[in-house]
Amino acid sequence: MPTVLIIDDNAAIAVALEVLFSLHDIDALRAASPEAGLALLEQRSAGIDLVIQDMNFTADTTSGEEGVALFRAIRKRHPDLPVILLTAWTHLDAAVDLIKAGAADYLAKPWDDNRLIATVTNLIELGQANRALSQRMQSELRQRRDLEKHELRGMVWQDPATERVIHLACQVARSDVPVLISGPNGTGKERIAEIIQANSAVREGPFVVLNCGALPAELIEAELFGADAGAYTGASKAREGKFEAADGGTLFLDEIGNLPLAGQMKLLRVLETGRFERLGSNRERQVRVRVISATNADLQAMIRAGTFREDLFYRLNVIELNLPPLAGRPADILPLALHFLGGRKTLDARAQAVLQAHPWPGNVRELKNVMQRACLLAGGDVITAADLGLPAAALAPSALASAAADAEPDRDAIAQALQRAHGVVAQAAAELGLSRQALYRRMERLGIARA
Predict the structure, then answer these.
(1) Which domain, by its residues, includes 418?
(2) N or C: which terminus of the chain carries fewer CB neighbours within 10 A?
(3) What's the pTM?
(4) CB environment 296-311: b (16+ within 10 A), e (fewer)
């Protein structure tokens, strides 16, 4: 239940307010003097959502000076706490000065119950929302600082959905359990695997990649486990498999759903025992390999269809990291686009809007290709919507205006960019796709202090 602190020397006023608030499920505390009110705030500041204070406490005093002093004391100690000023003696100049100093409202006695309740309710809801936002920003900042202690392999992101995946990847990196990274093609699953490897206990070991979807089914087993000479047609000499190459490090198996059933059975044995034989060989080999796999397929559906082993799925899926499609993490689009430009060119506002409006079925891979093409085709240093060659370039101006509004970085995005840039506005502006002057204007409008 929200709580209001009433600081008023008139007991009848305080009781009337208590009754009014109780009818609207708002708890009320009372203090009869500025000193008592400040003491209550010190004791219970975390549980008080709003203060209603009188402006005069001494008999026959109407100057409001006591209220001004009390307000400034509250503002100094609790700068974010909303304060409503309530008095029978309304001085317009004093009201204006205190509103400028941060007072939430200035109401005259006798007050209008409906207006007072509406004001109090709105301020409490706004305060709760601001506290929740502040807590989230603090949590994200702590998480970002924690991530900065890790090797992130040049990963570029801004969206919270991506950050959650990266944070979990860093958390599980130190263990040796298998990890399954799921998500559509082109989302950056291999980069997540690199982050896991780079922060693991075997980070000094090799990082070996095998795309199971890029090889014929009959060759995948030879690639994984190696083959002795004569094991199959064309095998004129013995060859080392990926497991041997990855010994003491990490093996990343992309598109694991393409592994044939025979290979799945052998992979399960390696995961359980660390032992395998090359094709055409009876000699057992022992390796110590961290396995990370990735898929864009629905492995559960493949299990039901009998094309993927259920026991292998649960062995690979000790930890699953799901990397959303690029459209599901829209805050990543512009930072990635600017990263792919490499500082060679910038994007105008319409181009940014078009990038935000495009659905990106090919995900990060498609975005990279689009930016590389635009960089080659753009006639000047600024890339326009026409240079992108995307269908969204034909959107109606109203749709593009809406997309442009969505593209404009919000307070969180600006704060995070400044934090990554260690307060260097020019660097943060470049990351956000803004000029330094434009970023300064947004900072001023959003109340973000310059470092």
Answers:
(1) 327-446
(2) N
(3) 0.63
(4) beebeebbeeebbbee
